[in-house]
Design a protein that fits this description.
With 114 residues, this protein is an all-alpha fold. Helices cover 73% and strands 0% of the residues.
């Protein structure tokens, strides 16, 4: 069991609230803003993956289903790409949460044509 001091718990709580705000910024109309939000999420995922990856799975991965909004989908896929690029092999425990949904959304509509 890990023990935390009060200041560490407050810090982790503040970071979690900021991560949720950054997830909202992934739908911004300006590409540079979406890119910087994606990079911030990837750095936080590298620092504390146990806290960040469940939030990513709950808030970013469902944005891949945004059928009519291309900006939302682009922000989600860029965030996932930045996280995959940053974590490298450390992504292995979370591969089912991130990579499998991306492959599921990208490949099946091409197979229906044949």
């Amino acid at each position: 069991m890990q023990y935390y001091c009060i200041s560490e718990l407050i810090f982790v709580f503040q970071i979690e609230s900021h991560i949720e705000r950054i997830c909202v910024i992934l739908s911004h109309n300006i590409r540079a803003v979406r890119h910087m939000a994606s990079r911030c999420l990837s750095v936080w995922a590298d620092i504390m993956p146990q806290k960040v990856m469940p939030i990513i799975a709950k808030q970013v991965v469902p944005r891949l289903d945004a059928g009519e909004n291309d900006v939302t989908r682009q922000g989600a896929i860029e965030a996932i790409w930045c996280i995959v690029d940053r974590l490298g092999l450390n992504l292995l425990p979370y591969i089912v949460l991130l990579v499998v949904p991306v492959l599921g959304k990208s490949g099946f509509h091409f197979m229906c044509q044949y």
